[in-house]
Amino acid sequence: MTDVTEKGYNSGSDTASGSQIAIYERPKGIKGIYYHPITQVSMLGFVCFMGPGLFNALTGLGAGGQVDNVTSANANATLYSTFAVGAFFSGSINNKLGSRLTLLLGSTGYALYIGAFLAMNIHPHAGAFVIAAGAVLGICAGLLWTAQGSLMMAYPTENQKGKFIGIFWGIFNLGAVVGASVSLGQNFHSTSNSVGNGTYIGFLVLTLIGVTIPMLMADPQKMIRTDGTKVTSPRHPSWKVEIYGLWLTLRTDPMIILLFPMFLASNWFYTWQFNEYNDALFNIRARSLNNLVYWLSQIVGSIAIGFLLDQKSISRRVRAFSGWGILFAMVFIVHIWAFFYQKQYTRESLPLDSANKFDIFDHGYAGRIMVYIFCGLLDAMWQTTAYWIMGSMSNDPAKLAHLAGFYKSIQSAGGAGAWRADAVKTPFMNMFISTWVLLVAGLVFALPMIYARVKDHTDISDETLIRMDDSGHILNADQIARRRVEEK
Length: 488
Prior knowledge:
two-stranded antiparallel ribbon
């Protein structure tokens, strides 16, 4: 270990300044590859590839691949309700149990949920089981996504966060791409409106494989970033101190509240996209192809926006405003285009069992699938930018776990509301307009937060939790500096 003059406090900043921090030598050879941050974020991506990725492929078919979308909508409403409650406290659970165990517990719920849809395909009256599985998955998903967010935002240096988020998002969405490809292959010669047992069985096997991956990941305490700075690990204090840390995150960084509308919108739009557009307009063959290109476009969108957000030649504040501007433009491009299609049909004009649904060979299909591709691009850009903004607020995994928990909690509350609105047959146009309005509102509220809170570098003064000792007492920056000198 050596001391160097570099900006940060164990933060992974790439820019020189004037404060001394500890630089550690990274391992070499195979061990160096295994402990490389990109390797670990890639493994994290495969955890979500096998769980949430396949869940997205199933949900993206509309109605979970079923004809009747009421059970699926109610299951999703239940899922996101428990997700919203559980995720709010998942940061504290993650900091207490550790990220690997939290990921392991979280990944189990996805296998149960997909198994429930298989059971419903075999026993049509198993709807209650699907809804109960959704409730369990909500708790599990809160754990998984909080641990994921903490690691994904903590492992990169400050100028790598967009790249790492893009890598994760690309691998994660490969799960949905694979799932959608399986579904398309199984259903290409079908003109019905539901999928077969083989699709569900394939998804179930893959999700069970994904449960094992967290056990193979590296201990975050042993991780060293590419610039030699060490990832700060949560201290696993008492539950009381962890809950206090949750409150402290909100109290000392209240600007995060201005991101809540952006978080709320980030799951709301799925209901219109999956059920009111893909499920309502297309037969199962077209839905499967739409699903495939939607998730492929997500990979492109996340990598493209991540590349912009990591441009070292541009200051971080300029990158933040540039990302905001691209999202604003995309929201209006997608929804002005989609409006002209949405006004052509209603719930009444296209009932669930309608034979008058678009097939891939029908006239007008090309324009409608292009809208769906742009929906996928917007989704990936929105989620990647939201994570990047949170990552610009902190480098501390403990605080990032709380921020990720807030994100997934508010996001899931929006999802619960949207899926429930769909279950009670809210008119398609109402769902569409609400989606558009919420996206615009999310950007409007985020703008002052970006202006006031996103800085070119994260300082130790911004990191309240990293300055909190095991008793909950907050040390000042000078005390932290003296303690680190003594440790050397």
